[in-house]
Amino acid sequence: MWNESPWMSLTPAELMTLREGTRLAKGRVVIAGLGLGHQLIEVSRRLQVKEVVLVELSQELVDFYLPKIRPHVKKRLTVIVGDAFAVLPTLAADVALVDIFPNYGGNEAAMLELRRRCPKIKKLWGWGTATMSL
Q: Are 127 and 21 spatial neighbours (Cβ–Cβ below 8 Å)?
């Protein structure tokens, strides 16, 4: 059956909602969810960022889309293909920016559970969550 909701988008409203997470990026940053690459590119431009780790579920998306945006990524980039809920708890980072949710809002419980399972990540930010999980 056809799903009328977009799988990914890059609207002005979405760009605005990503700003908060991007501003938090420093040191070693994990980005969960490639999307259309906007946050990856913007985070990599920040002087405070030393390294970026991308966690993306879809190997197809990585193979197809990442080569198109990779020239715009200005920091060392490591790519891990896998489920963010399984991979993030194994990583250490200063900040993790999690944009893997199908809808904006209502993701607080998932972020709290992820926060509990990721003791080696200092700060987690989730797209569409009301507060940052410290």
A: yes
Residue 21 CA to residue 104 CA, distance in Å, equals: 14
**Residue 83 contacts by C-beta under 8 Å, 6 or more apart in sequence?**
57
Q: Global pTM?
A: 0.84
Rounded Cα distance between 133 and 125, Å, is 6
Contact 63, 38 (CB under 8 A): no
* Each residue's pLDDT tens digit, 84-123: 999 999 999 999 999 888 767 778 889 999 999 999 999 9
Residues near 80 by beta carbon (within 8 Å), at least 6 away in sequence? 53, 54, 55, 56, 87
- What is the DSSP-derived secondary structure letter of residue 36? T
